[in-house]
Amino acid sequence: MFVPSQYRQPDSSWMLDLIHGNPLALFVSNGSTEAGPFATHLPVIQDPDWTGEWSDDLSGGRLLGHMNRANPHWKALESGTMNLLTFTGPHGYVSPTVYQTTPAAPTWNFTSVHVHGVVEKIEGIENTLEVVKATVRAYEGAFGAGWDMSESLDYFRKIVPAVGAFHFRVTGAEGMFKLSQEQPDEVQERVQESFGGRECTRYQAAAQLMSKLP
Questions:
Q1: Which InterPro entries does the UniProt entry name for this protein (predicted)?
Q2: Contact (Cβ atoms closer than 8 angstroms) between residue 46 and residue 61
Q3: Are 119 and 168 in contact (CB under 8 A)?
Q4: For residue 48, with 0-12 CB atoms within 10 Å meaning exposed, 13-18 middle and 19 or more buried, which class applies?
């Protein structure tokens, strides 16, 4: 991903926060010349068994994901190959009316993280089930209401043969946080105020990020 210098995140914590807060990734893999690339939206979590420290470009980190085995993407996926996970955060349209100057051009503020890494398919029903359980624990803790999965484990065992799970060893990442940094301070403030006044939560979230810019 091409990231102009003014849109680079202040530090790696911005990328991690975006990934953890927006964990439904677009998983992209190379396909054949005839089929073209594969792209699948799927949930991704940090591997709970990985105890390392995140580097500035996230390299060395470990993630977990899973998809439906009936998906042609899964059938084409090969262990040891390089793949891409893209995560999208808050974004919104910026009208030139906010700039209060002419000439001007509209734009779209957005936040995104592209994570490159090597995939390893996970073998075995029990190992796959552990990925599903880890995903439930992560999402119930972050977004849920404390649901107890214990009474549904038999159901999990019935459906998990149709699940394909994988490790994702991160080799590097780029974050794009395009939040009007190229504009004068007073224009940035107007964009932030405009976003913060919207009812749409993604605009509000973008405004909150703008308030944290150095």
A1: Split_barrel_FMN-bd (IPR012349), TR_PAI2-type (IPR007396)
A2: yes
A3: yes
A4: middle
Q: Are residues 62 and 169 in contact, defined by beta-carbon separation less than 8 angstroms? A: yes
Q: Are 83 and 74 in contact (CB under 8 A)?
A: no
Q: What is the mean pLDDT of the chain?
A: 97
| Start-end of H helices in 77-147 | 125-142
CA atoms within 13 A on the CB side of 211: 11
42's enclosing H/E stretch is: strand 38-46
d(CA 38, CA 72): 8
Report yes or no on whether pTM surpasses 0.85.
Answer: yes
The token pair that represents 42 in the structure block: 């799927």
Condensed to tens digits (0 to 9), the pLDDT of residues 144-195 reads 999 999 999 999 999 999 999 999 999 999 999 999 999 999 999 999 999 9
| 142: three-class secondary structure by DSSP | helix
Strands (E) across 122-202 are located at: 163-178
Determine contact, residues 175/14, Cβ cutoff 8 Å. yes
pLDDT of residue 35: 86
For residue range 32-72, list pLDDT tens digits in order: 888 899 999 999 999 999 999 999 999 999 999 999 999 99
Dihedral sign, Cα of residue 165, residue 169, residue 172, residue 176: positive
